[in-house]
Fold this protein.
Amino acid sequence: MTSMSLLPKINGADNGRGFGGREAASSLGMVAADGRLAPEAAAVTTWSGFSRRRSAGEQVLTNARIVGREFAFTGTVHVMGGRIVALDDGRSHVRSAVDFEGDLLLPGFVDVHTDNLERHLEPRPGVAWPGLAALIAHDRQMLAAGITTVLDSLCVGDQQRGCARRPGLLPETLEALRRAEADGLLRAQHFLHLRCEVSSDEVVPTFAAMADDPRLRLVSLMDHTPGQRQWADLAAWRRRYRDLSEEQLATIRTRRSAAPPGVAERGEIAQLCRQRGLTLASHDDTTADHIAEARALGVTVSEFPTTAEAARAARAAGMRVVMGAPNIVLGGSHSGNVSAREVLAAGLVDGLASDYVPTSLLQACFLLHELLGLGLPAAVAAVSAKPAAMLGLDDRGEISPGRRADMLRVRMCGSLPVVGAVWREGVLLG
């Protein structure tokens, strides 16, 4: 390929004098051949809150196997002011360039659905963990998995019992997000995905109270009533909640089955989303009728369809299809539903979400490439560029000039890809 650039010429990078932490920088490959520290070395030991330290200096990352949107090649990435400004073939001779030693350079991942924050907020049934501590632990897991943009998926209503959740949980979580952002404690960029359990008590007023949150990017309409959609197989539902007694399961099923079907709630939530220009997703679609119902409400994303029929109908209706990356890694659905590999082989998958295992995005990329024969650029796009586009985040998700310098250094350990370093807007975070 020829050099692609937003600048006429990238000059020699700053020699990094004045930066401490040589030992830490060396361990991350941040010391150049002449023994000087690269500019990124400042981020190794001086991290004190992302919002307060975004460098405008030049950075050069070279000898990397760069995975672009349409191609992969060995070359050099130039970064300035948090943006990728140029890509070149071959190796840079800038003395302070960071040598990737042939490691992969990927765009930071964009995760549209993760339950991981809720797992930290409630690590055991009935256990409420402090919100800010839970959020920070979740954030660090996202970063370690290569996820630089995350939609924290919070359930509005209890998907298990179909009732209101613990009072105060959602406001407490939003306050933790606000505080963490204000204090520069988060390394990934966090948005919200509100998952509305339409047959739950008070779902509409609870959602309406949060609908104007500036972090809100995605809303999904869910119904986890046993015997339909995700839990069409009641045996799989019982296995999922095997910690509950048969009496408890019977009580839950009776309550959920007796609850209104949520038709009015779907319509009211959809109207609130249309008024605010929010992206709306359906969840666990099983039939073509489910897709038709969703499309009539203005839904543009079918999240985790449970059958190939629903995935085909979604594609025919012009909707984007998101499947769970754990389904790809495990070779099947833990709920007994359609295999994501099957849906992908039929050309019906637009993007992947980590769902309940953050590291599954990275593993799924390489399984798509190695087992299913998908080109690595296309596999990576399924967890970066395509999810970003679904949400209108067109400034990220690709290694190309003009895009945000959200980047990953990935090394193969046998057949296992491992994240070695993460940059967000050109800042080395870990």
Summary: The domain at 109-396 is CATH 3.20.20.140 (TIM Barrel). The CA atoms of residues 193 and 352 lie 15 Å apart. The chain has two domains: 4-107+417-428, 109-396. The longest strand covers residues 147-156.
